[in-house]
Design brief:
509 residues; alpha/beta; Rossmann fold; Hect, E3 ligase catalytic domain fold; 4 domains; four-stranded parallel sheet; three-stranded antiparallel sheet; elongated
């Protein structure tokens, strides 16, 4: 008679007299005593018996099917090695019976009598009960650990798990990776960088996934939404969260700001005005009557189009002002502004210092990129050898070589973006500082609306109040002050209306 042996062990059971070697020995001894010739041994290592989805278990069933009439029995150490689910056990046993294959236990007394079948079912049900009790205990233990703030699963990028004196895993920030993760999360919270920008920044710094793969935009998105970095553990399955026992990498405020940026929201109480070069003072200049930030729009009439600044909202005062008049008044107001010489020199020094720091960081990033390119070159060389000796097929090799080529090109492109050959920061900083000595002309010459708005905010951080004509005294930025002579006579600022029509009611912003 012929028989096959099936052995299974889970990782935990290796030390508990269930080792594979011990199971095989006892099964072979049983086969010899019972007059069976062992023709094949099937082994599943580290597999649970809760399901039948086990590689060698399925191979064993398939083997008995193909060898129908040639295999008389399947020998196991105990029935719980075969299955810990009554339904699966009965189904597989019935399938083996159709091939005239018996299921035998080397350590349990089973036979084909009614009493033997009852005992077989009791043992199978007992194995399932034991498995379910263990599973419930594990779930309760993990739930208790979660509620106490301990994370039992894989830690996010930037953390690592170490063993403490109590032999319990302690989660700590990875000293090499955590600072890069913090950099990316903090940069994104500023609201001026896209996920693609953060991807490039972190790639330059040599950051890769836990498995050593290159970062993707999807990975960056998951990282930005990971509350673990703010010191919380979150169960998506139970929709619960708890304060974690691990050290947070960022504050909760940064995490919440990142969620706002991801949702496309702004941080201010008022919606951000639409930026257009025709209306750089929109949202910046305030109405002289209601002191609300003004918007701007175009009115049609008398054969022409006319631009106006005006207030908006439910309680608008209805006043409006020609855009050209407001811009001229603002330029005149800027002509009264001069930079503080000592602070201007300090600005030059700060620009040089910041640029120097950025260049050092860029140099370090470039070094990391070069190291990654070198590793890819080695991988490419080894892969070519494997293709040549037939270890890797030509089709698979071609695909992997293409992946290496693309990754290398991406890294080299990132490196090229960081180079600034021939750039003289000293000269550039001096020219910029000198241009600030004439703020009015500098503002007029700016042709990018974002730059214009930033320059306005640099001089007047809190905005300006329009007086029609002119502007009221406003809070100045650290670099600037008003000249002692506030100079421009009111009479010169009074504008005479032309033949354009008055602004129409209900102007669309």
């Amino acid at each position: 008679m012929n028989a096959v042996i099936y052995c299974r062990v889970s990782t935990k059971e290796q030390v508990d007299n269930f080792s594979l070697e011990n199971q095989q020995k006892i099964c072979r001894e049983y086969a010899a005593r019972s007059g069976f010739v062992v023709v094949e041994v099937f082994v599943d290592e580290g597999e649970s018996a809760k399901t039948t989805d086990r590689p060698d278990f399925l191979r064993m069933v398939n083997f008995c099917c193909k060898q129908k009439g040639k295999i008389d029995a399947v020998i196991v150490y105990k029935l719980d090695r075969f299955s810990r689910n009554v339904g699966d056990y009965q189904a597989i046993r019935a399938a083996l019976a159709r091939y005239h294959v018996r299921l035998l236990s080397a350590t349990e007394q089973l036979d084909e009598t009614p009493a033997g079948h009852l005992m077989e079912n009791v043992l199978s049900a007992t194995a399932q009960f034991d498995n379910e009790v263990k599973s419930e205990r594990v779930k309760q233990g993990m739930k208790a650990m979660f509620d106490s703030g301990y994370w039992s699963w894989v830690v996010p990028l930037g953390y690592k798990r170490i063993r403490n004196n109590a032999k319990r895993g302690t989660i700590i920030p990875d000293p090499e990776i955590a600072p890069i993760v913090v950099f990316g999360l903090t940069e994104f919270s500023k609201g001026i960088y896209s996920q693609t920008d953060i991807l490039k920044k972190l790639t330059r710094k040599g950051l890769r996934t836990i498995k050593g793969r290159k970062l993707t935009k999807q990975f960056i998105g998951r990282m930005l939404r990971e509350k673990f970095y703010a010191g919380y553990v979150v169960s998506k399955k139970r929709h619960e969260e708890a304060k974690g026992t691990h050290q947070p990498l960022i504050g909760l405020e940064i995490f919440l700001r990142n969620q706002q940026v991801l949702a496309g929201k702004t941080f201010g109480t008022n919606p951000r005005p639409k930026l257009r070069l025709e209306y750089p003072l929109r949202g910046f200049a305030q109405c002289p009557n209601c002191k609300k930030p003004m918007t701007a729009s175009r009115s049609r009439g008398h054969g022409g189009c006319y631009d106006y600044y005006h207030d908006y909202g439910q309680h608008r005062c209805g006043k409006s002002f020609k855009v050209s008049d407001v811009h001229q008044d603002f330029a005149d107001y800027l002509s009264q502004v001069v930079p503080i010489e000592a602070r201007l020199r300090l600005l030059e020094a700060v620009i040089k210092d910041v640029y120097g720091t950025k260049q050092q960081e860029a140099g370090q990033d470039q070094k990391r990129i070069n190291e990654q390119v070198a590793k890819l070159t080695v991988r490419k060389s080894k892969l070519i050898d494997l293709i040549a000796d037939g270890t890797v097929s030509k089709d698979d090799g071609k695909q992997k070589l293409e992946e290496i080529r693309k990754e290398t090109e991406e890294l080299m492109l990132l490196g090229a973006e960081m180079t600034a050959d021939g750039f003289d920061v000293g000269t550039a900083a001096h020219r910029f500082a000198q241009s600030l000595k004439n703020p009015s002309q500098f503002w007029k010459n700016l042709k990018v609306v974002e730059q214009k708005v930033k320059f306005q905010s640099l001089i007047f951080p809190k905005g300006v109040v329009y007086q029609n004509p002119g502007f009221g005294t406003s809070q100045m930025g650290l670099l600037f002050q008003l000249t002692p002579d506030l100079g421009v006579e009111k009479s010169r600022l009074v504008r005479t209306r032309g033949l354009e029509p008055p602004p129409l009611a209900g102007l669309a912003p």
